[in-house]
Amino acid sequence: IEREVKNKINSFYEVEREGYKYIGQNFLWERDKLTEIRYGNGTSKRKITLPEQSDYSLANSFNYQKIPLFYPQENLFHNSRINAKSEQKIYELFTPRNLYAIAILRDRIQKIHREDLKNLFLFAFTSAIGQASKMVFAIERRNKTKQKKKEVGSWVIGYWMPKNFFENNAWTCFETRVKKVIKAKREQNKIAKDYQKVTSFEDLQKGGDYLLVNQPSQIFLKGVGGNSIDYILTDPPHGNRIPYLELSMLWNSWLQKEVNYRDEIVVSEAKKRNKNVAQYNYLMAETLKECYRVLKPEKHISLMFNSLEDRTWISLLSSFDEIGFQLTKIETLKYSANSVVQDNRKNGLETDFIITYQKTAKNNFSKGKLEIVDLENEKEIIAIVEELKADQLKPFQIMNRVVTELLTRRKLIKITQLIKLIDNA
Ligand SMILES: C[S@@+](CC[C@H](N)C(=O)[O-])C[C@H]1O[C@@H](n2cnc3c(N)ncnc32)[C@H](O)[C@@H]1O
Questions:
Q1: From atom 19 of ligand 1, which residue's Cα is the shortest distance away?
Q2: Distances from the Cα of 4 to the Cα of 1, 13, 104, 109, 404, angstroms
Q3: Parallel, antiparallel, or unpaired for β 411-413 and 371-373?
Q4: Which of 51, 135, 163, 289 is most deeply buried (CB count within 10 A of its CB)?
Q5: Where are the beta strands (DSSP E) in 339-419?
Q6: What is the CA radius of gyration of the chain?
Q7: 208: Cβ below 6 Å to ligand 1?
Q8: In whole angstroms, what is the distance from residue 129 CA to residue 282 CA?
Q9: Contact 235 CB / ligand 1 (< 6 Å)
Q10: CA atoms of 115 and 129, how far apart (whole Å)
């Protein structure tokens, strides 16, 4: 790849100063105008220069319509929560220059014969393109000498295109990612054994080590025999927290993947998608029913979950209950890294819950439907919360006790009410 396309791509970013040619790395655009260029000159520090006529001409010589290679034409789903507008096309997230550079890269990677290598490079490719898009905002910081200097930020989330952004050299973006992938592969090879990958559930039962399935769970599980699984650990989408497939369009469109939007379990504000809370609850319940069927008797399912939406909580816990599962444990899981993608609202979720249920022989369903109660009327529960809090129990431990206690009495409360009570107790 390097031999065949690096020079061509780098020529897109050429900066000529005093008779010498350099390769531009970061091009600052402010309100549609190129205002600053950073280039390498052999030292580790990048040189900063103001654009000259030749730089404007080079940048403006690219044109979406004149790119002779494949690039994605999809329109985004309209969703203001992720700054996506339906009239916006995926390719418009890139400058014409970077779009051409990325198209060259993709085209070359597609020609790799070995499937595993091709996939590895496509992986690096998809992870690089965000940083080569117009979504890389310019951070303004004052340094020690109080001079204003713009720093290259990174693409955060959603399809927000800031007025001031950095157009980064696409080859460098790609090369950086490839190096990271190679480093990760080396690390992984130190611990990885030669695990046997299989392509069907039957082969897994015959002793294969792992099966990777890229299919909606509610559909895949239908083809799995009953009482055949020892443990289920699942981390489903949490209501409307992240519209995965809408965000993944950036990558799926470049990979020319056909995407099954219909069966995604998610709540989305995109009107066109018809993914509301009721739909979400329905699909989650369908999936959990399948989970119950395929689990061996007395075995467990753990589900990572969080949402501050009462309807989602109530529906999820009721589904487990109605299907016949028995709640055995609530734990919390700290996020491994703080991410900008995280919910930062007040009362933001700092942890996810892991709720574990068991497929027991006795069926709860015969005991009747769960009753959703108002916590204010549950004097005994309020007293328990106050006592547990006085005993220095952590909020999730209190929650664990209270939810379990209530469920055994066939009762459920609004989770927001409980959190408030724990906070104030
Ligand atoms: C909370 S994320 C899981 C994140 C994962 N545990 C990780 O650490 O990277 C939820 C995932 O469920 C996927 N998903 C959505 N609908 C699904 C369905 N019907 N079947 C299986 N997975 C689905 C989403 O695409 C998303 O990747």
A1: 216
A2: 5, 17, 10, 11, 62
A3: parallel
A4: 135
A5: 351-359, 371-373, 411-413
A6: 26
A7: no
A8: 35
A9: yes
A10: 21
263 lines ligand 1 (CB under 6 A): yes
**CA distance between the termini of the chain:** 62
ipTM above 0.95, yes or no: yes
Q: Give, using CA atoms, the residue closest to atom 2 of ligand 1.
A: 237
pLDDT in tens, 71-103: 999 999 999 999 999 999 999 999 999 999 999
What's the CATH fold of domain 197-368? Rossmann fold (3.40.50)
Domain ranges of the chain: 2-189, 197-368, 370-425
Cα(246) to centroid of ligand 1, in Å? Answer: 13
- 283 CA from centroid of ligand 1 (Å): 13
φ, ψ at 161 (rounded to 5°): -110, 105
Task: Report whether 81 contacts 269 (CB < 8 A).
Answer: yes
Ligand 1 pocket test, pick from 220, 221, 235, 306 with the greatest ligand atom count within 8 Å of Cβ, gives 235
Q: For residue 238, what pLDDT is reported?
A: 84
The two structure tokens encoding residue 293: 């069927």
3-class DSSP assignment, residue 324: coil
For ligand 1, atom 3, the nearest C-alpha belongs to: 235
Most confident of 53-62, 155-164, 298-307, 411-420: 53-62
Determine the Cα–Cα distance for residues 406 and 408; give it in Å rounded to an integer. 5
Quick count: other Cβ atoms within 10 Å of Cβ 25? 22
pLDDT tens readout for residues 56-70: 999 999 999 999 999
Any atom of ligand 1 within 6 Å of the Cβ of 237: yes
Q: How many residues does the chain have?
A: 425
| 370 Cα–ligand 1 center, Å | 28
CB distance 221 to ligand 1 below 6 Å: no
